[in-house]
């Protein structure tokens, strides 16, 4: 029985990469056209959302999102969320309507086909290089000037220890938000680790919940940028408290 489960898990994991590529191949000409000019990005973003929903559906996931407050479609935000799974990117695209660009690690650009579009539409950062980290700010400003939002997973990566509910946050997202006066929108993904973690023989189809909290302002009433470290801890506590609330609710079911 254990061997059969491992075989099924292996097939299901391989299927994840197949279902990532199929929608890209179908939409390939339109995706390529949309990245030829900067003005084409909103169209690319719409197709990315279709891709993300196809991947989630193809893996047997269905999502439910709770929006505490409606966001302004004409405003730029900094979106941040806990990071536990390869599906975090897809769920973020599926539940957020405002066009945004990811700030992410360069290693994702190596994924066949997906990486081709990822490195041409996202802001890539090499965390070991100070020059690369500084260039992120210039790239972010260009996107914000075009009316786009930014998305960063502030843990900087998925914790190797899966018992960690929420890892420490890095400063980057909060420095960017404070410097560019972007309200920070915290998102909570309580189920992604259970659905498709980085442990190979694990996961299952099912519900993926998401909760979008109200924006956290990064500018004082006097128009001054708030302290990024205080913002970092405030937002982390908001996400951590919500994750703990989800755990409590699940434990009594």
Quick gist of this model?
The chain has 253 residues and is α/β, with parallel strands linked by helices. The chain is built from eight helices and seven strands, in the order ααββαβαβαβαβαβα.
Walk me through this protein's architecture:
By secondary structure, this protein is an alpha/beta fold. The protein has a seven-stranded mixed sheet, with helices on both faces. Helix 1 (2-34) packs antiparallel against helix 2 and helix 2 crosses helix 3. It is 47% helix and 14% strand. Helix 4 (114-121) links the parallel strand 3 (100-105) and strand 4 (123-125). The protein is globular, with a radius of gyration of 18 Å. It has eight helices and seven strands; from the N terminus they run H-H-E-E-H-E-H-E-H-E-H-E-H-E-H.
In percent, how helical is the residue content?
40-55%
SSE order: HHEEHEHEHEHEHEH
Adjacency order of strands in the biggest sheet? 1-7-6-2-5-3-4
Distance between the first and last residues' Cα: 28 Å
Individual helix count: 8
| Low-pLDDT sequence parts | none
Query: How many individual β-strands?
Result: 7
Shape: globular
Protein structure class: alpha/beta
What value does the Rg take, in angstroms? 18 Å
What is the overall pLDDT average?
Answer: 90
Task: Give the percentage of residues in beta strands.
Answer: 5-15%
- The biggest beta sheet, please? 7 strands, mixed
């Amino acid at each position: 029985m254990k061997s059969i489960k491992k075989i099924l898990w292996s097939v299901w994991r391989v299927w994840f990469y197949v279902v990532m590529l199929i929608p890209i191949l179908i939409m390939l000409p339109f995706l390529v056209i949309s990245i030829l000019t900067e003005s084409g990005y909103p169209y690319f973003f719409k197709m990315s959302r279709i891709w993300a929903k196809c991947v989630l559906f193809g893996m047997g996931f269905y999502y439910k999102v709770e929006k505490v407050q409606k966001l302004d479609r004409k405003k730029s935000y900094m979106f941040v969320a806990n990071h536990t799974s390869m599906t975090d990117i897809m769920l973020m695209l599926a539940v957020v309507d405002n066009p945004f660009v990811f700030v992410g690690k360069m290693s994702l650009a190596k994924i066949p086909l997906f990486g081709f579009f990822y490195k041409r539409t996202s802001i890539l950062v090499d965390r070991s290089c100070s020059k690369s980290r500084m260039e992120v700010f210039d790239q972010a400003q260009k996107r914000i000037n075009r009316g786009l939002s930014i998305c960063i997973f502030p843990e900087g990566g998925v914790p190797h220890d899966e018992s960690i509910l929420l890892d420490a946050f890095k400063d980057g997202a909060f420095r960017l938000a404070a410097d560019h006066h972007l309200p920070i929108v915290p998102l909570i993904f309580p189920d992604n680790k259970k659905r498709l973690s980085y442990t190979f023989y694990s996961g299952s189809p099912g519900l993926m919940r998401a909760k979008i909290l109200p924006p956290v302002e990064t500018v004082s009433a006097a128009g001054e940028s708030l302290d990024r470290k205080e913002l970092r801890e405030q937002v982390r506590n908001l996400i951590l408290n919500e994750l703990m609330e989800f755990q409590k609710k699940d434990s009594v079911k």
